[in-house]
Amino acid sequence: MPSFFEVVAARRSARAFLARPIEPAALRSVLEAMVEAPSAGNLQAYRVILVETRETRNALAEAAHGQDFVAAAPTVLVFCADAPRSRARYGERGAALFALQDATIAASYAQLAATALGLGSCWVGAFDEARVARLLRLAAGVRPVAILALGHAAERPPRPPRRPVEALVQAEAH
Q1: pLDDT score of 98 more than 90
Q2: pLDDT value of position 64
Q3: In the chain, is it the N or the C terminus that has fewer CB atoms within a 10 Å radius of its CB?
Q4: Close Cβ partners of 46 (under 8 Å, ≥ 6 residues apart)
Q5: Is 2 a residue whose pLDDT tops 90?
Q6: Torsion on CA atoms 135, 66, 151, 136, rounded to nearest 10
Q7: What domains are defined for the chain?
Q8: Which sign, positive or negative, has the C-alpha torsion 8, 51, 45, 28?
Q9: Strand, coil or helix: what is 112?
Q10: pLDDT of 42-65, one tens digit each?
Q11: What sign does the dihedral 35-108-130-88 (CA atoms) show?
Q12: Which pTM does this prediction carry?
């Protein structure tokens, strides 16, 4: 098993997938890692829709502005912020921010777990939110915030350039 830092360094956005399903045990491991993600007040104010049918993957790809690799991935996870769950404890800040953070941290854990297992993934944030919500019949207040395409990668993209740490981290002002 690779170290955490090796997993972080190995993660890439795969946009081509083999026509091979993810093994059930591997998918279960990804989902179990996701559940371990920290969340505000440990509420886990998110929902995840597991999509494996061709028809729904095609519709998600269309809702994602024609990003066809979403349809090509054998498994797609749609991470949704559950605003009502967070609102009950934290009010509007919980609904507007904490539920969103909970969902995206869970998606990050799932993506890193997939990488650790040798799977490819691609995070998709560009999509018609209302269309995805209708397609997946989401409850009121449950908002799709990230689509994660998962599968056995058919490509190994090169490491994209990254900004140096010094450009991103600033010491506190005195």
Answers
A1: yes
A2: 98
A3: C
A4: 39, 79, 80, 81, 82, 99, 102, 103, 106
A5: no
A6: -10
A7: 20-155 (3.40.109.10)
A8: negative
A9: helix
A10: 999 999 999 999 999 999 999 999
A11: positive
A12: 0.96
Q: Which residues of 53-68 are buried (b: 16+ CB within 10 A; e: fewer)?
A: eeebbebbbbbbeebe
**Residue 66, pLDDT above cutoff 90:** yes
Tokens of 81: 């912020």
CA distance 116 to 14: 14
How far is the CA of 79 from the CAs of 7, 21, 44, 47, 163, in angstroms?
Answer: 21, 20, 12, 6, 27
Residues 6+ apart with CB under 8 A from 47: 79, 80, 82, 138, 142
What are the structure tokens assigned to 173, written together?
């002002």
Tokens encoding 21: 């399903």
Give the sign of the dihedral formed by CA 137, CA 25, CA 18, CA 14.
positive
Let me know how long the chain is. Answer: 174
